[in-house]
Structure formats: structure tokens, C-alpha cells
Specification:
Structural class: mainly alpha
Low-confidence stretches: none
Shape: elongated
Number of strands: 0
Order of helices and strands: HHHHHHHHHHHHH
Mean pLDDT: 92
Length: 275
């Protein structure tokens, strides 16, 4: 990720210099050539849509620097559409290139390969003894190290559900079905309005049961988790849903660390979920 980001930044700088060189060869006061306008638009959108989010979310560069560059890129985007002056192009390109290496490339070179807190995640999953789960969650953490926190959470939750399903398989489907009936028959308390029952006979059928229903049966019927653990797992499931669907709720490093900590402690290293 680090090397690729540096390559993209260097390529952007070279293409911006190339655009400036082509514009300076024009013999007219305005940039009327469509290919130059399209090149300016492409570079501006690349910064706004791709480079800016990476530098902000993955490498945590200073907001003041990033916001200033974002404004310059927005100005270039506006210039690319009408028939604007050569002098205006030259001015905004000079601003984009000013101290470019010191502002962007050098900080990336000096940054750590992993965001803060990723070492904690490596230490957490080192507690796992199942090699398949360890490999799968390592892949999820690699996503986090690349700055893709939402993808990391979705992957990790898949591992949680896989453990849930394998635990039920180990207990026996009849026991799971009976536990669901037990929860359904409750007339008071937390689950008094829960009215589902299942006749699961295969793992394939179990995979059609909703994640939150599994949590209910683990708490209310099988007694594998207490009320606090159930609430926490419901919260983690909400993190998964918010990560999988577009929305404005932030998913940042603290949320990610908490998510992994809880899944490791409540599920993967919990003796009640051992296989």
C-alpha cells in the first residue's frame, strides 16, 4: 500500500507537470483544446476521488494540507470545463505542485507501514489456535492495515458466524431447535415477543438463519452468553451492517480495535464456544 501510494503520487506529479508544459506551448490566451481540458479534469478527479481519501484515511496526513490541496484540485476541475485562461491554469497548477514532494511524498516515505493500533490486532489474533480462523482473520487485518476498515469488519464478522454455525453443528441441530422453542415459549423478560422456531437438520439450512436470531438463541436458549455479551454481539452485528452498507456513521480505528477485541474475547477465545 505504501509503495503503491508513492508510485501514484509520483505519477500524478509527472502528469501535472506534463499538463503544465503542454499548456505553456499554447499560442492562445485560453485553453480551448479538448484533450487538455479532459486531462485537467481527469487529474482533478483523481485527486478528489482517489488520492485525497487515501492520504486522509490511510496515512492520516494533516487536514490543513489535505484540505488546501483539495481546494486546489477543485479549482482545476472548474477550470477544465469552460474555455478558461492559460494564466488561470498556470496559477492553480503552480499551487498544486508547490512543495509537492515535501507535503505528500516525503511523509508517506516516513510513515509506518501499518496504522496505529494494528499491532494490537496482530497480538489479539495471535491467541487463536485454529489455523483456518487465524489465516482468515489475518486477511481481515491486512484489509485494516491497508485502510479498509469497513471491509475488515465485514470479513471478521463472517468468521464469527462461521464459529457460531460450527458450534451449533457440534452441539447438534436438535438441541438448537429445542433451544429456539424454549425461547419462543418465554412469556416474560427480554425475549417474550420473540416468536420463531426452527427445524434445522443440515448446515446448509442453518446458514439461512439470521445472525441476530443466532445471538438470541445463544443467550435465551443455550446459555452460551449472558445478557451483556448478547448486547455487545448485537452491537458488533450493527457495526457489520453499517460497514456493509453506505452511510455516514464513522468506522474508524477505535471502532475497529474494539470490534476485534470483543470478537476475540466473547467468541474465539471463549471456552463456551470451543469446538
Amino acid at each position: 500500500m505504501k509503495a503503491e501510494t508513492i508510485r501514484i503520487l509520483e505519477q500524478f506529479e509527472n502528469e501535472l507537470k506534463s499538463l503544465r508544459k503542454e499548456i505553456r506551448t499554447l499560442e492562445t490566451p485560453r485553453v480551448g483544446r479538448k484533450n487538455l481540458q479532459e486531462k485537467a479534469e481527469s487529474l482533478a478527479l483523481q485527486w478528489i476521488n482517489d488520492i485525497h481519501p487515501t492520504l486522509r484515511d490511510r496515512f492520516k496526513l494533516p487536514e490543513t494540507v489535505l484540505n488546501e490541496m483539495f481546494d486546489f484540485a477543485t479549482r482545476l476541475l472548474k477550470l477544465s470545463r469552460p474555455n478558461n485562461r492559460v494564466s488561470s491554469y498556470n496559477e492553480v497548477i503552480a499551487l498544486l505542485l508547490k512543495n509537492y514532494k515535501d507535503r505528500f511524498i516525503l511523509p508517506i516515505h516516513q510513515s509506518n507501514n501499518a496504522p496505529k493500533g494494528m499491532v494490537q490486532l496482530d497480538n489479539l489474533i495471535a491467541q487463536l489456535t485454529n489455523i483456518d480462523e487465524l489465516n482468515y482473520l489475518s486477511e481481515a487485518i491486512d484489509c485494516a492495515k491497508a485502510g479498509f476498515y469497513r471491509a475488515s469488519i465485514v470479513l471478521a464478522w463472517c468468521a464469527v458466524i462461521d464459529r457460531f454455525q460450527r458450534k451449533i453443528n457440534a452441539l447438534g441441530f436438535d438441541k438448537f431447535n429445542q433451544a429456539a422453542v424454549q425461547v419462543k415459549n418465554q412469556t416474560s423478560g427480554k425475549f417474550k415477543r420473540w416468536n420463531k422456531e426452527f427445524k434445522i437438520t443440515t448446515l446448509s439450512e442453518l446458514q439461512s438463519v439470521f445472525d441476530n436470531d443466532l445471538i438470541v438463541i445463544f443467550e435465551g436458549g443455550l446459555g452460551l452468553i449472558d445478557s451483556n455479551e448478547g448486547q455487545r454481539l448485537e452491537m458488533l452485528f450493527e457495526y457489520r451492517n453499517q460497514s456493509a452498507h453506505p452511510g455516514n456513521a464513522p468506522i474508524e480505528e477505535p471502532h475497529l480495535i474494539a470490534f476485534f477485541y470483543d470478537t476475540i474475547k466473547i467468541v474465539f477465545t471463549n471456552p463456551r464456544f470451543s469446538l
